[in-house]
Amino acid sequence: MQRISIINIGIGNISFVHLAFKSLGAQVDVVSDKGGIHDPDAIVLPGVGNFSHAMEYLRNAGYVEFLRRQHLNEKFPFWAYALACSC
Q1: pLDDT exceeds 70 at position 87
Q2: 3-81 maps to which CATH number?
Q3: Which of 27, 35, 58, 77 could make a disulfide contact with 42, Cβ separation 3.0–4.6 Å?
Q4: CB neighbour class for 78 (10 Å; exposed up to 12, middle 13-18, buried from 19)
């Protein structure tokens, strides 16, 4: 079973992403700080359509260096995405 950590930065609809990974059989953790990330197979960052807000949050929460080190050393995938709907 794949373990996915979804970083909650306070924007975006995390519940749909959570359900999508669960429906694929993944174990999903929604985390609000880097201390909640435990041995993931991948990390997902939703809502980066508002890039400046996302980067501000990641810097303030200490994620930037943590993610850089983890991604480079552990070689796990890091997915950042934006979903938009124009009605």
Answers
A1: no
A2: 3.40.50.880
A3: 77
A4: middle
